Amino acid sequence: MNAAPFRRCGLVVKADARGAPTTLKAVLDCLQARGTPVVTDLDTQAAFTLDLPAVSLADFAEHCDLMIVVGGDGTLLRASRRVIADGLPVLGINLGRLGFMVDIAPDAAAATLHEVLDGAYVEERRGVLEAFRDEESLGLAINDVVLRHPEPVSMLEFATTTDARFISHHRADGLIIATPTGSTAYALSAGGPMLHPASDSVALVPICPHTLSDRPLILPASAQIEVRIAGRDGRGAMATLDGHSTVAIAPGGLVQVRPATTPLRLIHPAGYDWYAILRGKLNWGRDKPAE
Fold it and tell me: Which residues are catalytic?
């Protein structure tokens, strides 16, 4: 049992998610029954016209001790990037499809929220990446930094270096640089390994490499990664952070990826088990061996 530091809560809700109004009501009923002050972000307020204070996500940490996200992993990723630097803890209620990060079922939202606010929870510190374009910060990535050719079916040529040590030249559809959190997202679809959230590592996963021996590579989380875009066709590359913000990289441009200074504080209900999440989401062990 933890101390109960969450005395004020902020709500971020994916308005068009199935079941959003019902789950939002259950959460608000729980918080109001406890007398917990609540604020919402501006989009949530506009979507539901709630009788609550509304502030921008950039100011959330000044008004709450816990951000509650009602939606899918994508909603949590978008909202969390705005509060990581402030060290604001994040709790997710799952209205999405998979939900590796938003792990509370809607029908258990109220009961679980009571337990969390009473101090029964697990806190994880998830590593975050920061990407740079020639030393200009592009922002934070909780899941991954993805480099691809601007054309969807064209091959990208690039060279990778870590901590000033050359790794290799590559020809592939692109490259995914994934945190352990992101190892169960795009990187997994591209054939990368699943990394335990507590592992101190980062994965380099080529996308459809031209050379089949060009395999995923696991590096220490502290690695300073550099990717030089060859851009021989004059097109350069596109860098995408968490599937959200995309910027152009000029031919010959350098992308640097480093560990961010502040981790994501992710709150789970008591009894959280990452392996149970994998079994449930990936349909492992459906056919039990005969005893």
Answer: 73
